[in-house]
Amino acid sequence: MLNLFSKIKENFSGKKDNKKCFCYMPLIHAFISEENNVYTCPECMVKNSLLINLGNLQEENFNKIWNGSFAKQFRTNAKHKIHSYCLLFPCANKSNFHMQVLYDFMKKGLYDKKCKFPQIVTFGNDVKSLYNCVMSDEEQSEYDTEIKEKYFEALKEAKYVVFCSKTDPFSSKKTSSLIKEIAEKFPQIKFNFVSNGILFNKEICDSLGITDRIENVLIFINAANKETYDKYVHNGNYDELIKNLTWLKELKDTNKLSNLFFAYVIDSNNVNYMTDFIAFTKKYDTYALFWPKMNFDNNKINFYNITEECIANPANKMYPEFINTLNDSKMNDECAYIAYGINILRDKII
């Protein structure tokens, strides 16, 4: 199977002309936001940086959205390598977890051109929340029956499901209940998770019926040791986290888990510990995904007009420390996957 990362990089070198790129996302992936909007992926946008959606499940059923004229035209454009609605450059980088899931899916030869419904379905936040790296303990009301049936319709031909909500999937009764129902109704589906790791243990996974069906996992840690973690992560539990990471490593070592990634969202509080995090990650024989915490206003996303709070902005008081860290040779370790925007910055300073 083609290496999707290298192929996209070959076709897209930072130029605004992205018509030569090919992206599988519109063909096989549906991203369902917490507002029940349906996207092809969390990066899919029109030129004015507004997220573009195919429809909303509170207004229509999934079949009507996915197989409607707008969605079909969307996929036709993708087949002809027309992506004027999409950023594309975040996909050309291994720090993108959704791209990692897609790559794993394609590498295993699971893509079926005959499917009329998505083969990968993601439940979670849109890109604004993901880049803000919000993962709260806020509990939400249960899904109503009508919405859940629409979710199940979306999953009728799915082989992978991804959970990446602002609330950890295992700390939310609402999400845990949905995971268990999906596991029972769709025995062919494998599970992929974005989690803070505190409740990601064998006992909970056993109770949900997913222990032997986990494929790719991204754990938000953002710290390299207990002292930093306790200061940085509110309501965290470092000892439980380490115990669960050890279990996940065991799954990976025995080929019961395809990929394990640790996320490090860089801001002023943890910028000085990035290389320590790489050393921490290597203990688990896995990968470190780095990207700067970003803020978006008015539901718009502009990667070229970042706020002062962003560590990649020269106006940030910790910016010199950030640059010094990027210059450290340890950041070139093969286990470190650095976000596209940071790589552009590195190219300018190195």
Q: Can you lay out the helices and strands and say which pair or pack?
A:
Elements (H helix, E strand, L loop, with lengths): L3 H8 L13 H4 E5 L3 E3 L15 E2 L5 H5 L2 H11 L17 H11 L12 E5 L2 H6 L12 H10 L5 E5 L8 H13 L4 E6 L6 H7 L5 E7 L5 H7 L5 H16 L5 E8 L7 H9 L4 E6 L26 H8 L9 E3 L1 H10 L1
Parallel strand pairs: 1-4, 4-5, 5-6, 6-7, 7-8, 8-9, 9-10
Antiparallel strand pairs: 1-2, 2-3
What this model shows, in words?
The protein has 350 residues and is an alpha/beta fold. It is built from 14 helices and ten strands. The longest helix has 16 residues, at 238-253.
Give a quick set of tags describing it:
single chain; 350 residues; 10 strands
What's a concise summary of this model?
Helix content is 36%, strand content 14%. The chain is an alpha/beta fold.
Structural class by secondary-structure content? alpha/beta
Strand order of the largest sheet: 3-2-1-4-5-6-7-8-9-10
Q: What multimeric state do the chains show?
A: single chain
Q: Would you identify the regions where 5 or more consecutive residues have pLDDT less than 50?
A: 11-19, 126-134, 297-301
Q: What is the strand content? A: 5-15%
Number of strands: 10
Estimate the mean pLDDT confidence: 83
Distance between the termini: 33 Å
Output the helix-strand order.
HHEEEHHHEHHEHEHEHHEHEHEH
Radius of gyration: 19 Å
Helix content: 25-40%
